[in-house]
Each structure stands twice: as structure tokens, then as C-alpha cells.
Design a protein that fits this description.
Blueprint lengths: L2 H13 L11 E2 L3 E11 L3 E11 L3 E2 L3 H5 L3 E9 L2 E10 L2 E11 L3 E12 L2 E15 L3
Antiparallel strand pairs: 1-4, 2-3, 2-9, 5-6, 6-7, 7-8, 8-9
């Protein structure tokens, strides 16, 4: 896996937080248009910030749902406590094994989180960090 692909995977994983879906153990959020910003930092590209505006229609969601659908990744733990969710996962990709742990917290009209990923690519260990924050900015268009 190239450094560029790692950066894309990291950013995509972080942005999954904005995609809503209701499940048994979910976090409550206020539906509407959300501005989401994520920053990923890894030894290949340094810090990179991504922004998106997305419509969240559900009142609750589980940020691990899309990650768990990946054939490359397996959710190891998933816990909701109050307005916070934590999870761990393991991914086996082309030439890389990755362990990740994350936390997401919602305050209704705002949310934040982080995910730390430790990986080994061809015998070269490294760590990536993704942080994100989101704010409801109004109703969906």
C-alpha cells in the first residue's frame, strides 16, 4: 500500500463518522446539515485536513458500521457509554496489518472524535492519528 493510499484510507475512515445509520448501540445526534473537519497525521504525508458538509437525516448513528462492512477490517470491540462510543478494530490489507482504536462523542449539535492506528507495512511500523469534529450548521437543503 502506497503512502498516498494510506492517507486516502485514513481520511475516508475518519469521514465515515458523518454517515448516519441507526443500530442497537448508537450515538444520538441532531439531524441536519453538518460541517465535518478531519485531520490525519502520518509519517508519510504529515498532517492533512479535510472538510465536508453532509446531511445527517437519522437521529442516531454508529460510526463503526461502515468500517465493519469492509472485507479488510474486523471490529474487535464496540461500546457505548452515555454520549460516547469507543471501538477497536483490526485490518489486514495488501501489504499492511493495522490495529485501530477510536472514540466518538456527541453533544447533540456538535461532535468530536479521534482514531489512532498502528500499522506495519512490510516490516516498517508506524502510527497514524485522525481527529475530527463536526457541528450542525442548519437544516438539510
Amino acid at each position: 500500500m502506497t503512502p498516498n493510499r494510506i492517507a486516502i484510507f485514513t481520511a475516508a475512515t475518519a469521514l465515515l463518522v458523518a454517515g448516519g445509520s441507526a443500530q442497537a448501540e448508537t450515538i444520538r445526534v441532531e439531524p441536519g446539515k453538518w460541517q465535518v473537519e478531519s485531520t490525519s497525521s502520518n509519517p508519510f504525508t504529515g498532517p492533512q485536513t479535510f472538510s465536508s458538509t453532509q446531511c445527517i437525516r437519522e437521529e442516531s448513528f454508529d460510526p463503526t458500521e461502515e468500517m465493519a462492512k469492509s472485507a479488510e477490517c474486523h471490529l474487535l470491540s464496540h461500546e457505548v457509554s452515555g454520549n460516547a462510543m469507543t471501538w477497536t478494530m483490526s485490518c489486514q490489507m495488501e501489504q499492511m496489518t493495522m490495529q485501530a482504536e477510536g472514540r466518538f462523542e456527541s453533544r447533540g449539535a456538535s461532535a468530536s472524535g479521534r482514531m489512532t492506528m498502528s500499522a506495519d507495512m512490510g516490516g516498517h511500523p508506524f502510527t497514524m492519528e485522525v481527529t475530527w469534529s463536526g457541528t450542525r450548521i442548519g437544516p438539510c437543503d
